[in-house]
Amino acid sequence: MTHRVLICDDQALTRGGLRMIIESTDDLVLAGEAENGAEAVDMAARLRPDLVLMDVRMPVLDGVRATERICARDAEVKVLMLTTFDLDEYVLAAARAGACGFLLKDASGEDMLFAMRAVLRGDRVLAPAVVDRMMSHYLDAHPVPSDDRRLARLTERERDVLVLVARGLNNTEIGERLYIGVTTVKTHLGRILAKLEVRDRLQAVVFAYEHGLVTPAR
Predict the structure, then answer these.
(1) Which of 15, 50, 125, 195 is the right S-S partner for 101, CB 3.0 to 4.6 Å?
(2) How far apart are CA 191 and CA 195, in angstroms?
């Protein structure tokens, strides 16, 4: 199955690099290229891509607001945000806007492809460095919650899975680390989300950091 990808970045060099990565595959095809957020919104509506690669900082309309408009118009489209270290304060806003993943712009071509395919499968992609810095800022601004009864609902294995999720490992990597199958990892993750009463993987990561299961590298 071939998936159509829309690139949204105001830097021609970046767009060219992403274009080359997409064109090197058989399962991804370039749907178009946008140079600013407003153009991205218009092109997404007209071209209806399966995946949008969205830069956070763009002229006319920033990536977060563009993502919000794209996702509000079409709930089926997946958005993978491309960010840099100095923009991690936007990650939570982008998640609320509907983004499915976050990746550093200097990621390797292999990591880019892995992230794109994971998002298209319905997984969330969280670059460990982005999450770690984001949570460092977040915890500085928010007091650590008092004892939370939801934490006691987790089994020891579910805690292990949650910690590895918070550290940025994908389901395959978690399975290899814990010597369990990917299907089992997904089952554990589903139970974790239900027990913690959180919506998705990112909210589970925030919970893990808030409750001290993982601490940011300062």
Answers:
(1) 125
(2) 6
